[in-house]
């Protein structure tokens, strides 16, 4: 049988499995099987791709054995390293690993473009346009994602910007587009150094794009780069005439774009705002004096009060995950539930480091997803709650977002924890949140502060409630 | 074989358009709790680029092309495998309360 026919048929099956898998991933009940289905599609595609060796470029014939060995070694190394690193990474570090793997995909797309352009293989207006665009986007995604990974992993600190950054970036982008345009209009016949410059500048642009962006905005950027890689893969799929790459790439390109917009919206920021301005740089001053004082309370007392409440809502933040306190928190929740307390989790759209990240972290601790509620579903219930407990969250519960127009977070939707009868805030110290804004919730009359590491606080609460039950020890 | 394609012009546009619509539909109706796993899952899906990189490497005819192709396949394989493992680990944790173990 014609190998090309087998390849085409197998790729259709793989594409179908990808889309069906993604669809299954979009419901919590079937999500697990979704990734397995999609994974099966990938295995089929990679195995069948070896049939490509039956019909290669005559110029490549003499190198075929070497090329096959190179492919097998590269596959084994890439797969082995990624499998190992993916298995050992902590759940809190997931976002940066997603960034890293995403950057690798962008790099692979850029590599396809590089081979086509360096080898003067791509011809024709449409193909060259796609090759050039995919090359730029893939390279930007590679270097940008690496910066995002390094920042989230704490390998690079802070943001980096200088006056005229936008102008420099604009100049770089113009140069890239000029070389790209020249390549297209000369049917790909341009000197090698120029093509090399094209890719180097694209990589530089990715770095310049990601470096000025601060920690809180990083998830939006990772999601954006994810969409970028999808687009680059789709474009390069067109260049090499592979419909599976085109469909899979474009599905991710559009899904990723939508996800990016949803994330930006959850923080009341536009994507261009994220890319071109600095969170908190303009704002931190200009807030009024906050009246009242912070009232500390002992962790054990707070725990016992919750034991005798009828409804408790928990608002977790990244501080919970950093302290690795999810498991202790759920142990405490089970104690409350055993005592007949109704407990719910309220998740702000950007709790954690990415939308849904907090859900993953809670799921890791075994918290069932049906007591976890999205902000919009639970915000009206805070006024009926006896206690709202904020653990390691700050900006997402700051009432200034509702009232203070001069605040940099003004307009961001927040959890209405301040409407609960009693608010406990578990916090390491008196510092400010990511945005650098003071939080008036901490000074409110119905708020008490529980100072300490979230894990130690949870242990103290558990002990207090247990000793109550055990008859006072 | 030079890079030629049977999918030209408007047929390509149709493919892109329908694929974009599919992606939009899939994400649009998803609860926020699945956004991170889905982002990771879509990150895995574009790992299919490894197949394109394999094609490019098989057709490489100079040392430079072979070197670039090698890195392309290496990176693509990392994208696919890493994306799979991370997504699978995240989704493994989603269990309803009636089925949870201890």
TrEMBL record, chain A:
SUPFAM superfamilies: DHS-like NAD/FAD-binding domain
Segments traversing the membrane: 6-22, 34-54, 66-86, 98-115, 127-150, 162-184, 190-208, 246-264
Reaction(s) catalysed (UniProt annotation): NAD(+) + NADPH + H(+)(in) = NADH + NADP(+) + H(+)(out)
Domain NADP transhydrogenase beta-like, first and last residues per copy: 9-463
Source species taxonomy: Bacteria, Pseudomonadati, Pseudomonadota, Gammaproteobacteria, Nevskiales
Function: The transhydrogenation between NADH and NADP is coupled to respiration and ATP hydrolysis and functions as a proton pump across the membrane.
Enzyme class: translocase
Keywords: Cell inner membrane, Cell membrane, Membrane, NAD, NADP, Translocase, Transmembrane, Transmembrane helix
PANTHER family reported in the protein's UniProt record: NAD(P) TRANSHYDROGENASE SUBUNIT BETA (PTHR44758:SF1)
EC number from the UniProt entry: 7.1.1.1
Protein name as it appears in the record: NAD(P) transhydrogenase subunit beta
InterPro entries xref list: DHS-like_NAD/FAD-binding_dom, NADH_DH_b, PNTB-like
Coiled-coil residue windows: none
Membrane topology summary: Multi-pass membrane protein
Oligomer and partners: Heterodimer of an alpha and a beta chain.
Family that this chain belongs to: Belongs to the PNT beta subunit family.
From TrEMBL, chain B:
Domain of life: Bacteria
Species in which this protein is naturally found: Sinimarinibacterium flocculans
Residue intervals passing through the bilayer: 6-24, 44-61, 67-86
Catalytic reactions on record: NAD(+) + NADPH + H(+)(in) = NADH + NADP(+) + H(+)(out)
Enzyme class: translocase
MF terms (GO), sorted A to Z: NADP binding; proton-translocating NAD(P)+ transhydrogenase activity
One Gene Ontology cellular component annotation held by this UniProt entry: plasma membrane
Cellular compartments annotated: Cell inner membrane
Entry keyword Cell membrane: yes
EC number in record: 7.1.1.1
Alphabetical GO biological process terms: NADPH regeneration
Keywords: Cell inner membrane, Cell membrane, Membrane, NAD, NADP, Translocase, Transmembrane, Transmembrane helix
Entry protein name: proton-translocating NAD(P)(+) transhydrogenase
Domain (NAD(P) transhydrogenase alpha subunit C-terminal) ranges: 13-95
UniProt keyword Ribonucleoprotein, yes or no: no
Chain's role: The transhydrogenation between NADH and NADP is coupled to respiration and ATP hydrolysis and functions as a proton pump across the membrane.
Membrane topology, from the record: Multi-pass membrane protein
PANTHER family named in the record: NAD(P) TRANSHYDROGENASE (PTHR10160), PROTON-TRANSLOCATING NAD(P)(+) TRANSHYDROGENASE (PTHR10160:SF19)
């Amino acid at each position: 049988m014609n190998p090309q026919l087998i390849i085409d048929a197998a790729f259709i099956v793989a594409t179908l499995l990808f889309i069906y898998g993604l669809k299954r991933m979009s419901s919590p009940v079937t999500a697990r099987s979704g990734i397995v289905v999609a994974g099966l599609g990938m295995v089929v595609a990679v195995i069948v791709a070896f049939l490509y060796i039956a019909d290669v470029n005559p110029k490549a014939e003499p190198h075929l054995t070497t090329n096959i060995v190179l492919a097998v070694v590269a596959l084994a190394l890439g797969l082995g390293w990624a499998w190992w690193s993916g298995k050992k990474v902590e759940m809190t570090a997931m976002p940066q690993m997603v960034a890293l793997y995403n950057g690798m995909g962008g790099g692979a797309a850029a590599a396809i473009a590089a081979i086509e352009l360096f080898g003067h293989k791509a011809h024709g207006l449409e193909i060259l346009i796609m090759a050039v665009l995919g090359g730029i986007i893939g390279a930007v995604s590679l270097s940008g994602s690496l910066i995002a990974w390094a920042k989230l992993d704490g390998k690079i600190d802070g943001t980096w910007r200088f006056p005229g950054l936008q102008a420099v970036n604009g100049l770089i982008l113009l140069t890239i587009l000029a070389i790209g345009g020249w390549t297209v209009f000369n049917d790909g016949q341009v000197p090698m150094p120029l093509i090399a410059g094209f890719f180097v500048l694209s990589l530089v642009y990715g770095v310049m794009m990601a470096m000025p962006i601060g920690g809180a905005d990083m998830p939006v950027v990772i999601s954006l780069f994810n969409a970028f890689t999808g687009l680059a893969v789709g474009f390069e799929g067109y260049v090499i005439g592979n419909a599976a790459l085109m469909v899979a790439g474009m599905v991710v390109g559009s899904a990723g774009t939508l996800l990016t917009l949803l994330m930006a919206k959850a923080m009341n920021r536009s994507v261009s705002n994220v890319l071109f301005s600095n969170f908190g740089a303009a704002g931190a001053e200009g807030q009024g004096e906050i009246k009242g004082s912070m009232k500390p309370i002992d962790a054990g007392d707070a725990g016992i009060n919750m034991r005798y409440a009828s409804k408790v809502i928990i608002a977790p933040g990244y501080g919970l995950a950093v302290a690795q306190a999810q498991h202790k928190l759920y142990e405490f929740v089970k104690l409350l539930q055993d005592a007949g307390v109704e407990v719910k989790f309220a998740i702000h759209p950007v709790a954690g480091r990415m939308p849904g990240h907090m859900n993953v972290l809670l799921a890791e601790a075994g918290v069932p997803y049906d007591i976890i509620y999205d902000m919009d579903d639970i915000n009206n219930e805070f006024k009926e709650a006896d206690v709202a407990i904020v653990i390691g969250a700050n900006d997402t519960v700051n009432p200034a977002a509702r009232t203070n127009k001069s605040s940099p977070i003004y307009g961001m939707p927040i959890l209405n924890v301040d409407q609960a009868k009693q608010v406990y805030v578990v916090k390491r110290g008196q510092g400010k949140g990511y945005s650098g804004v003071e939080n008036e919730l901490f000074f409110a009359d119905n708020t008490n502060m529980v100072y300490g590491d979230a894990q130690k606080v949870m242990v103290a609460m558990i002990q207090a409630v247990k000793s109550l039950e055990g008859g006072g020890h | 074989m030079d890079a030629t394609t049977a999918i030209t012009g408007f047929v390509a546009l149709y493919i892109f358009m329908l694929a974009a619509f599919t992606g939009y539909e899939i994400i649009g109706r998803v609860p926020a709790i699945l956004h991170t796993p889905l982002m990771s899952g879509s990150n895995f899906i574009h790992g299919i680029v490894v197949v394109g990189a394999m094609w490019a490497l098989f057709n490489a005819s100079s040392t430079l092309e072979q070197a670039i192709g090698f890195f392309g396949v290496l990176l693509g394989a990392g994208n696919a495998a890493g994306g799979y493992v991370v997504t699978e680990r995240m989704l493994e944790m989603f269990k309803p309360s009636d089925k949870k173990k201890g």
